[in-house]
Please model this.
Amino acid sequence: MKKALFILLAVFAAVSLASAVDFGGNIENYSLITNDSDSQKQTDKAALWFGVSPSETIYIKGQGSIAYSMDDYDFLADVDYLYITQDFPGAINEQSSFTYKAGRFFQSEFTGKVFAHRLDGALFTLALPIANFSLGAGYTGLLLKPVSGVNNTAADMADDADDDIKLAPKKMIVRLGASFIDIMPAQQLDVALVTQLDMRSDDLLEDGDAASEDGNGGKLNTYYIGAGLSGAISGSFIYDTYLYYQLGKTLTLIDDEYKDKPISAILLGGSLSYLNREFYRSKVTGSLLYASGDDDNASVYEGNTKGSGTQFMPVSTSSTGLIFNPKPSNLLKAGLEYSMKPFAESRNMMKNFQAAVSAGIFYKASEGAVSESKAAVISDEKYLGTEALLTLNFRPVSDFGLTLAGGAFFPNDSKDGPMGEDYRDTEAGVMINASLSF
Amino acid sequence: MKRAFLSAALFLTAMLIYSQSNEEIDAFMAKKQADVATAAYFTLSAAGMQNAASTAEAAPGYLNENKWFKEELKGDELLKASDASYLIMKAFAQKGGIMYSIAPGPRYALKEIKYLKLIDQKTDPAKIMTGEDFMILLSEFLSWKETN
Model:
């Protein structure tokens, strides 16, 4: 710990002393307090960053941090990002630009619901007047386990519970994307291809192994083909839609023998927003998310027990709620949100105050399990519960921001419902997120 | 669209620094490396402080007398992005964040200007600005100020 802190400070001091270096830092607190002690979280993080431009087109940026977490880990020193990027304006013609980025940084496909995570790798982007094309690839196995969210297999979950394992599951992610801007006036078409390759070298279970064999599941290689359309319908309505089809193979236990079965799953969703700038910059958004499930899945992690696997499994975890937060896997969620800036017209710091009320209704897409441990059982009933929140965002000045959210999750309290016996009471919670940059 | 906006903003800036001749503005905008003196002269004029410095040569003297910068400015000194940001923030008495309030200066001024999205987020504090870059920054700041 002391060694890691020393290295971070030494790197920071070295780059700060070099000429033409921009540097700074930030301090952040995230706290979630609920009446279920197992769900409570608190993370405090202090980070230092630097940025340097050795030439007009090259930029190098890095950030190291020390974090304390009450629930997941004690102290953690990490390199949050460290990358070099270079622009080549006019690469093909005057209107084009080519950019590469290499190192550790955040990558995402166009929705962020299938893959959005830090990687050690590279990204190549070609911007043309009609479209932007990108090719990204990277590895997850050098990231620290507590701050990664790529657990998708039984082996990943076993590693997650093992305190001796410090690094994230070894996966190679390759993604290809294209954004066609203004295919029609104010309409954008996105297409993407994402590949997740399991790079584990452990002695895992394989097709043909008997049920009596020891092991935590098999390898999971998955492929996602997606498209989305977004834009404005009129001046006041904006929308986005997306559809992903997942392919691959999943290890399936049938008649006391493991067999590789094909995956055929979908993720689809979208949102429609109405904007009214005149009435306190109001915004009303309705959203829908459907991630297919599998009736015979006893677990979302390689839980298939019959036929092909139809449960959608994203590469990385994305948020679907605050108090109840299952992965977009075997899930149907309908959401409604209204937000406003009540002091938008003022000329003081209050103009940056935003209030939002939202509700999300959660259903299982099939009888199988969902990723939340509170509802990880097969059940006929699909209604999981409803979450209602009030969120207040306030950034009074450029370097300080505060978010307060409070609300409750009202679970399906039916005895035969999908919620575990200990999780059928209303769970209330408050979240505080404050950050100061310097 | 952006070009039209910039033209309008530059026109607005020219109106505000009406005391300068078009030739002076054109000559400054043609500079590959802007100098602090002329940038300060235009900024003070745009902020309605024409009396503070009637010529570019006099502008650094005013800034030094009033201790705007920690170190004394020389007339032929080249204009860094961070100094340009502070010049504008200070001339227009623009309030900043917590850190700018505690330690006002070029460092946090550039961060404020980046937060307002008036300059490229990758801009290096030590980057020497061109005359055109500075005039665009000043114009964009004035346009932002109009609506905020």
Q: What stands out?
A: The radius of gyration of chain B is 14 Å.
